[in-house]
């Protein structure tokens, strides 16, 4: 069981619940490479009475075919989903149109009452899925704090966007990952701090997926001669090809693991999805 639940997250969860009554629509942002593992299971219960749109962020790093399957999956559950790139703004226009479509009844009701047809939204997500980057790109300036380390945003604050007022919230994890696979998925993408799990273990888990789903990506990136059945041998080969060696010619396993994880996180291996619906 993996635990990582800083005090500010517990506080933020309470504030999210108390502020939900102020908003018309909830945006839940997930990592398109791991839409299942990057969803806080608590959010379903918290937001069940609100209109919701899923944002599949980092779509440029994910396997497009599988991302489309996830959009279909969410739609079958009654939730609209849009794939976005928080850095470039790709998908933002579609999101605006989808928001107006989902909230059509609310907008019409406001017009009938003589109110400005402007919406209020809340954005939710776990750490490091790109919430702050999304907001900064949406409003065209640096307002929300961003960083490579998960858990940068610590409090709730309102931001005015072109078509709605958006309540930004801190990334909130849940207290315990009962399923170790979820912990590994979050560690691979950098959603939890690298110190929580051993880098070597995380890299071995990543290789166990890549060797079956994307073997050619490993071969092409690291000029490997073959894909071994044993994950440890694959990482050793990566280490040899990348010069991750210590005295005596032995492979520096930690360094080789770090090379692999960084390549995955930057998209250097190719467009990869680790989970299918």
UniProtKB/TrEMBL annotation:
Keyword Nucleotide-binding: yes
Principal localisation: cytoplasm
Localization per Swiss-Prot or TrEMBL: Cytoplasm
Any GO BP annotation: translation
Pfam families xref list: MMR_HSR1
GO CC annotation, single: cytoplasm
Statement: the UniProt record of this protein carries the keyword Hydrolase: yes
InterPro entries (UniProt xref): G_CP_dom (IPR030378), GTP-bd (IPR006073), GTP-bd_ortho_bundle_sf (IPR023179), GTP-bd_ribosome_bgen (IPR019991), GTPase_MTG1 (IPR016478), P-loop_NTPase (IPR027417)
Keywords: Cytoplasm, GTP-binding, Hydrolase, Nucleotide-binding, RNA-binding
Domain of life: Bacteria
Homology family: Belongs to the TRAFAC class YlqF/YawG GTPase family. MTG1 subfamily.
This protein's name: Ribosome biogenesis GTPase A
Protein source organism: Caldanaerobacter subterraneus
């Amino acid at each position: 069981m993996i635990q990582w639940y800083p005090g500010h997250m517990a506080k933020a969860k309470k504030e999210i619940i108390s502020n939900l009554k102020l908003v018309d629509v909830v945006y839940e942002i997930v990592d398109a490479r791991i839409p299942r593992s990057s969803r806080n299971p608590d959010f379903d219960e918290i937001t069940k009475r609100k209109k919701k749109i899923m944002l599949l962020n980092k779509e440029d790093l994910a396997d497009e075919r599988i991302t489309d399957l996830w959009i279909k999956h969410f739609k079958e559950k009654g939730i609209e989903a849009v794939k976005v790139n928080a850095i470039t703004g790709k998908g933002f226009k579609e999101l605006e149109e989808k928001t107006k479509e989902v909230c059509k009844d609310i907008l019409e009701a406001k017009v009938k009452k003589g109110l400005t047809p402007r919406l209020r939204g809340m954005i939710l997500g776990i750490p490091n899925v790109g919430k702050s980057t999304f907001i900064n790109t949406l409003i065209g300036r640096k307002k929300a704090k961003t960083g490579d380390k998960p858990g940068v945003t610590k409090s709730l604050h309102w931001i005015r966007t072109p078509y709605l007022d958006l309540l930004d919230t801190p990334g909130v994890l849940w207290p315990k990952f009962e399923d170790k696979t979820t912990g590994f998925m979050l560690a691979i993408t950098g959603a939890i701090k690298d110190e929580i799990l051993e880098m070597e273990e995380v890299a071995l888990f990543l290789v166990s997926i890549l060797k079956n789903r994307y073997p050619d990506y490993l071969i092409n990136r690291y000029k490997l001669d073959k894909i071994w059945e044993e994950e440890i041998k694959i990482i050793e080969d990566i280490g040899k090809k990348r010069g991750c060696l210590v005295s005596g010619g032995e492979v520096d396993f930690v360094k080789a693991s770090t090379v692999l994880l960084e390549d995955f996180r930057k998209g250097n291996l190719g467009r990869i999805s680790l989970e299918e619906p």
